[in-house]
Amino acid sequence: MCPPPEESAANLPPLQIGITGGIGAGKSTVCRIFAALGIPVYDADSRARSLQTTNSELIAGIQAAFGPEAYLPDGSLNRSWLAAQVFDSPDRLALLNDLVHPRVAEDYAHWVQQQAGAPYVLKEAALLFEAGSYRGLDATITVSAPEGLRLRRTLLRDAQRSRQQVQEIMERQLPEGERLQRADFKIVNDEKTLVLPQVLRLHRQFLRKELPARQG
């Protein structure tokens, strides 16, 4: 006997949608709109920061790779020190990412299992394409804004960062054109185009499970 339709739907895994954007694009603002619509959002960058102080295996790996200076006496991550170690060293940054990203992937997979019954979920990640964490997702969204606007937003939000530091972060991220080309959908957040109608349009589309054909 088949279970009632509502029971079957409640047990189905949700669609998994990745959302990204360059620094200052406003992806977190867009995610808050989706969250207000009742859609679960996984903030990969926030979870990565949390896991670096709560996951014992990750803590041990960071200490082994970078030394005990990576953590303060109270057990918190010595963020400014660690950032200085990796900022101008692609090899050391890759080493840190190789430690962190697998733990975030495990954490995300566990989180998704807890979202059964949701029509879809969002995985918010700044380096969605760069880190390869788009793999296994059903679709991806890029939040787009002009570079000058992204720079101004970031300087207003992160007063501790200099213009040069923000520009260097931008240079390490995918070019805007490549990010848009790789994404299945885009949301323009240029302070001229209304964001809410774009989100609602995608929301309805995802509820109907209307997704582009994926290669491979």
Report the radius of gyration as a whole number of Å. Answer: 19 Å
CATH homologous superfamily caption of the largest domain: P-loop containing nucleotide triphosphate hydrolases
Q: Regarding quaternary structure, how should these chains be classified?
A: single chain
- State the total count of DSSP E strands: 5
For the biggest sheet, the summary is: 5 strands, parallel
Tell me roughly what share of residues is in helical segments: 40-55%
State the helix count. 10
Distance between the termini: 35 Å
What key attributes describe this structure?
52% helix, EC 2.7.1.24, alpha/beta, Rossmann fold, 5-stranded parallel beta sheet, P-loop_NTPase, 216 residues, globular, 2 domains
Topology:
Elements: H1 5-11, E1 15-21, H2 27-36, E2 41-43, H3 44-54, H4 56-66, H5 79-87, H6 90-113, E3 120-124, E4 139-144, H7 147-157, H8 163-172, H9 176-182, E5 185-188, H10 195-207
Parallel strand pairs: 1-3, 1-4, 2-3, 4-5
Helix pairs in contact: 3-4, 3-6, 4-6
Explain what the structure shows:
This protein is an alpha/beta fold and 216 residues long. It folds into two domains: 14-40 and 122-206, P-loop containing nucleotide triphosphate hydrolases (Rossmann fold, 3-Layer(aba) Sandwich), CATH 3.40.50; 46-114. Helix content is 52%, strand content 12%. It contains ten helices and five strands, in the order αβαβααααββαααβα. The protein has helices at 5-11, 27-36, 44-54, 56-66, 79-87, 90-113, 147-157, 163-172, 176-182, 195-207; strands at 15-21, 41-43, 120-124, 139-144, 185-188. A five-stranded parallel beta sheet has the order 2-3-1-4-5, with helices on both faces. It is globular and about 50 Å long. ATP binds at residues 24-29. It is an enzyme of class 2 (transferase). Its EC number is 2.7.1.24. Keywords: ATP-binding, Coenzyme A biosynthesis, Cytoplasm, Kinase, Nucleotide-binding, Transferase. Catalyzes the phosphorylation of the 3'-hydroxyl group of dephosphocoenzyme A to form coenzyme A.
